[in-house]
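Problem statement: downstream parser choked on a complex file, so we are re-checking the raw output for the zinc ion run. The parser issue turned out to be on our end (a line-ending mismatch), but while we're here, posting the original submission so the record is complete.
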Amino acid sequence: MQIAQHCFALMGFAYTPPWSVNAGFIVGDEKTLIVDSGPHILAAATIEGYAHAVRPSNQLLLINTERHLDHISGNSHFADNGVEVYGHVGIQRQNSELKSDIDEYIACTPNAVRRKREEAAIVFTGTRIINPIYKITSEIKFNLGNLNAEVLLTPGHTPTNLCVFVPAERVLFCGDSVVSRYLPNLEGGSVRDWQQWLSTLDRIVALEAEVLVCGHGPILQGDNVPKEIQRVRTIIERAILGKKAPTSYESGK
Ligand SMILES: [Zn+2]
């Protein structure tokens, strides 16, 4: 869907429940910057198709917002088609890790026959890990042709998280630094990471973005932007106090 004159979002690619994953792209006069490659190459092909169709003459570039596989597993589709793949230098994943994510996805199949047939793996056919080739170590700007996209380093969820901001349209592709409606995923981090995450949220607030394309969940606009950032902040603050991720409480509260 189009969310601003030059910004688009692709929503709801299936992943291990309860997660569905988003991606997006930013279209300048000369280059189109795709943000995240989806959880498998089928999603990647869909993302590429839309990104190409909006302005077919543009060169395509891809950037990953973090190291988790739901944001990078479509990379091989783009790399195989000559697209430059950017991402944080700390993104170093393996095919064996993809295999365990696929196994987890298969295990979620309710029907025993379909589970045994591993039908859930069909969507991952041909998917393999390609890590970013252009490694980001500092904040950079992409000139897409009369349109800038700024890369902000936003650690917290993982040390590799980054956001892509389009100042001209006040659109922020924030990856999992802000998830919409979901409990933020704190499982992979420590109290130190969560404290960093709070600083990242301060930075995101200061951008005064009008639209947030989150890594997961519905797009945020208007009043929902500060509201959801505050919701995520409260959950992280509680986790820091209790030294426990919210998903580790059995009651689910
Ligand atoms: Zn994610």
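For whoever reads this later: The domain at 7-248 is CATH 3.60.15.10 (Metallo-beta-lactamase; Chain A).
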